[in-house]
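Hi all, a correction to my earlier message: I attached the wrong file for RNA pyrophosphohydrolase. Here's the right sequence:
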Amino acid sequence: MTDPATLPYRPNVGALVFNRQGMVLVARRTDMPGAGGPPDEGVWQCPQGGIDEGEAPEAAVLREVREEIGTSAVQVIGTYPEWLSYDLPAHLIGRALGGRYRGQTQRWFALRFTGHDADIRLDTHLPAEFDLWKWVRLEQLPHLNVGIKKEIYTKLADYFARYAVAA
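and the right structure:
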């Protein structure tokens, strides 16, 4: 068994995408239980992904949004002031994230969605990471089934609350 203390955290970015009404986008993961089922099931998350070698976090978050939800109709409007880290559950150490990391350290951004709902396309990333998406009130985010990221989403909901208003 791999000792988690010997593994680094994977550098990652995440995006809270706010629409004009101040709602935040969440999407249901295709690789977790509940995918493909009724809309009230599954594990939900905000767009996120790894930072490529030499890539700046802001460039990475814009790339991840484009790759995962198929749109570039976003603008960065805020940044969480520090990196947030989470550990993988013990049964995933050595398996998830290519087996090379104990978890992820993330730089989170608030983005304003400037497009239309039809601009959000989950079919542009193959294989698709998400099978459904929806707008939710920011304060709902930590109460969804967000898997192991509940603590992070709670911090983000508190910090980015100023963007959860109509623009």
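Sorry for the mix-up. The mean pLDDT is 94.
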